Amino acid sequence: MGCSLKKSVAEELIVAYAARTLSADLEADFERHLETCAGCRELVAQQRAVWSLLDEWHPLPVSPDFDHQLARRVARAGQSPWWHRRFGRWGWRPLIPVAAACTVLLFAFLLKEDDHAVAPGPGSQPQVRIEQQVEHALDDMDMLKQIGVDVSSAKPGPARKI
Amino acid sequence: MDSDPMQPSAAQPSWARRVNNSETAQRLPDGDAELMLQVRDGDEACFTQLLERHRNAVIHFLYRMVLNQAVAEELAQEVFLRVYRFRSNYEPTAKFTTWLFRIATHLGLNWIRDGRHEKGQESLDERTDGASRQVHDRSRTVEQELVYQAKLREVRQAIENLPSKQRAAVMMHKYEELGYAEIADVLRCSESAVKSLLFRAYESLRMRLAHLA
Amino acid sequence: MFPRGSILALAALGWGLFFGMPALAQRGARGGARAPRGTQTEAGQNQQKTPIDEFETMSPDEQQKALNRLPPAQRRQLQERLQRFNALPPEQQQTLKTLYNRLHQLPPQRQEAVRKAINKFSQQAPDRQQAMREELRSVAALPPQQRQAQMSSPDFRARFNKKEQDILRDMSPLLPER
After folding, report:
1. Residue C25 is assigned to a structural domain of this protein
2. Which chains does chain A touch, 3 or more C-beta pairs < 8 A?
3. Choosing among C10, C13, C106, which should be mutated to test the A contact, i.e. which has the most A CBs within 10 A?
4. CA distance C148 to C132
5. Three-state SS at A133
6. Residue B19 · residue C119 · CB < 8 Å
7. Number of compact structural domains in chain C
8. Tell me, what's the pLDDT at B5?
9. Residues of B in Cβ contact (< 8 Å) with A58
10. Residue B180 contacts by C-beta under 8 Å, 6 or more apart in sequence?
11. Domain limits at B148?
12. C88 in the same domain as C47
């Protein structure tokens, strides 16, 4: 071949070049090498051909009931949820008052007002202050602008930057 | 880098600093590993999320390994079943995808090894069935479609003729875009061994397929 | 077996009532509470207040008091950012608020995944960003059950590399529920 590069190095570069994973600098260096090396040029052309052929090999669609079948297999394998392994031997009746307790706590948590203006009581954790909340909200808004397309509604329309 | 995270920096937008500096991002670089730890702790919704993220990739990888869609889905079910079964022992010592593809590769290679005596019959069936199930592009004429299907058969045959480990390495490198180090992790060999596998595989594929492009 | 389970269950109920009832009583004392974020409908997200809305509804004195808690440079920057946001057309402000609320409806882990995905999105080449925007727009118009199929289709995988596919999938929770 008469290539100035070691075979293993050339092979690695050829594969990466065809896959477009070389850094910009390396790509430029390798392209300069290709200008003078007919052997590597030929191999690059072949590798690109293989790469695009492999691109055309699409997999088949997944069965729509795959997840359902997996769930059945998990159940058949006798794997019960962790809570059943830990508490199942006690039966379900004791769960009723536990569920009631959790419901009370859940209501209390959900209905508890977020009062940003209220000074924290002694010994309690300070709430996130409004100015910090605003800062974080603006951070999120700046980040969301990056998406640059109005996906807030499902109406079709041209993709425009926000 | 600013020592005070509250002070603005011109070098990086503030929302990106929050992402990069957040406790979650710093604690665990791999979002999948974090989900898997939640599964370990009993959060089954996180298992569903992992399944949604990786189901198709695993199935498609296995399909290209075993060249049979039904077998690929069967093996993929086994992969996720094992992930679920071993959840209580999970430790994020490697990337989650490394672990996932290690299981998938192991099952795929075993199937290839064990199914070799039946390979001729099944592959022929799949070639007939699988090729016809490929999505037909309506923009192609009938003649173009025939040429495309013939090309596809040659690609599948070339892949089928690769030794199984070379096949696995190519599939991970080409379709999952894993790097040499990660493929080495999956196959439990050195990076130089992976490069050797890949370059021999690509050399074979070039010889068989370059004339088709 | 039953008595032991019952004792523990009753203890749990007592614990729940002990901690839950005072919080419920406080709710009454404060005169009501906002609806929790988690129960908002899609339409409700448009009306839900963001911290920016809450700040805007505070009196000027309260706003100034809040801003004075910040160091001067940070205060100035926050005021400028608020001015820039308020200078946006109302439609764009609403779009951003809707996306913000949708983001904050998600569990913390998924929020983190979305933020990281947007971070990676912003690092892609402009032409790839545009292609991904177009894809998000077309997926947003699909019913949710078809979105997953679209984002796993051969066509999708052919048009986007693996990194881009992951970015798009991780950003998809921001799409409307329809």
Report:
1. no
2. B, C
3. C13
4. 15
5. helix
6. yes
7. 2
8. 34
9. 134-135
10. B191, B194, B195, B198
11. 29-212
12. yes
Cβ distance of C130 and A159 shorter than 8 Å: yes
Tokens 């604690």, located at residue: B27
CB–CB of C2 and A110 under 8 A? no
| Cβ pair B135:C73 closer than 8 A | no
Cβ atoms of A131 and C77 within 8 Å: the answer is no
Distance from CA of C93 to the nearest CA of B (A): 18
Predicted local confidence at residue B90, as pLDDT: 87
pLDDT digits (tens, 9 = 90+) for A146-158: 887 566 555 444 4
- Contact at CB, B8 and C161, closer than 8 angstroms: no
For residue C27, is it within any domain? no
What pLDDT was estimated at residue A157?
47
Residue C90: is it exposed, middle or buried by C-beta count within 10 angstroms (0-12/13-18/19+)?
exposed
Confirm whether C125 is domain-assigned.
yes
Pairwise CA distance, residues A55 & B177, whole Å: 12
**Tens digit of pLDDT for each residue in B42-91?**
888 888 888 988 999 999 999 999 999 999 999 999 999 999 998 888 88
For residue C20, is it within any domain?
A: no
Q: Kindly report, residue by residue over B131-141, the tens digit of the pLDDT.
A: 444 555 566 78
Supply the CATH number for residue B106's domain: 1.10.1740.10
Mean pLDDT by 10 residues, chain A (162 residues): 81 90 90 92 92 87 88 72 52 66 75 51 60 90 80 51 49
Taking the domains of chain A in order of start, what are their residue ranges? 7-55
Query: Nearest C-alpha of chain C: how many angstroms from B148?
Result: 15
On whether the CB atoms of residues A1 and A39 are closer than 8 A, the answer is yes
Residues of chain C with pLDDT under 50: 1-2, 27-40
For the entire predicted model, the pTM comes to 0.52
Distance CA C22, CA C77 (A): 41
Residue of B nearest to A78 (CA): B85
Task: Show which of residues 19-48 on chain A sit within 8 Å of chain C, judged by CB atoms.
Answer: none
For the stretch A58-67, pLDDT in tens is 888 888 889 8
Among the partner-chain residues A61, A73, A143, the one whose CB lies closest to the CB of B15 is: A143
Q: Which domain holds residue C96?
A: 40-105
Number of structural domains, chain B?
1
What is the predicted ipTM? 0.73
Mark which of C105, C130, C162 sits at the end of a domain.
Answer: C105
Nearest residue in chain A measured CA to CA from C142: A154
Cα–Cα dist A52/B148, whole Å: 13
